[in-house]
Design brief:
The protein is an alpha+beta fold. The protein has two domains: 108 residues, no CATH class; 89 residues, no CATH class.
């Protein structure tokens, strides 16, 4: 990924916030423990899925799990970015990466990128009844490496079997989530923190279409 060229001064364009909420780092755990950030504001980015690195021009597969602030209205834009004011609505309690981010000097935030990242396991209590289910879900329905998926989709020879395998994974992931929601064990707000985004959503940017059928989702 080629970093975007640094500016001479900040013009409050909002590009940094629209590109995606920041990843959380070790010191940010205090924001969660002290209630200044709620877990319902967070999404788990799982190993292999696409995400933007600071100053990157396009998303790329991540090499390890981390937490970040959720986007809003189905976009990458940070949940706490106020479009009208062109400002952060939690400025005093913003994560460390936001405090270091400076479009005139990318080095401070690039120096911490990918280091000391918080994961959901840093934030889940050992006696949380969902913890065993999180571990089971991660084992049974891992996020595939989206770069490899993209390559397979572009190969006419590999595409049919890949879509078949992905459909099994996607539907298993969806049923797992639906069962927990139906049992009252999982709220929609908490789902993104505990289990990340549903796998079918991760495939949409790769051009994979979704069709509902009586047998589950069909990938096109």
């Amino acid at each position: 990924m080629t970093p975007v060229a640094a500016k001479q001064s900040c013009d409050r364009c909002g590009s940094c916030c629209r590109q995606g909420g920041p990843a959380l780092h070790g010191p940010d755990i205090s924001l969660i423990r002290e209630g200044r950030l709620d877990r319902h504001h967070l999404v788990t980015i799982r190993k292999g899925e696409l995400a933007f690195a600071p100053f990157a021009e396009s998303p790329a597969p991540v090499s390890g799990e981390f937490l970040k602030l959720q986007g809003k209205q189905g976009s990458w834009c940070c949940l706490f970015y106020d479009e009208q004011a062109r400002a952060c609505s939690i400025y005093e309690n913003r994560p460390m990466a936001c405090g270091l981010f400076d479009c005139t000097d990318p080095e401070p935030v690039l120096a911490i990128t990918g280091k000391d990242l918080l994961t959901r396991f840093d934030c889940i209590d050992p006696d949380d009844p969902l913890l065993p289910l999180v571990r089971r879900h991660e084992q049974e329905f891992p996020c595939p490496d989206m770069e490899s998926v993209a390559a397979g989709l572009n190969s006419p020879a590999d595409r049919p079997s890949l879509l078949t395998n992905l459909a099994s994974l996607v539907n298993g992931d969806l049923v797992f989530r639906q069962q927990l929601t139906a049992q009252g064990s999982l709220s929609v707000a908490a789902e993104l923190f505990y289990f990340g985004r549903p796998l079918f959503q991760l495939l949409l940017p790769l051009g994979v279409g979704i069709r509902e059928t009586p047998m589950g989702l069909q990938l096109l």
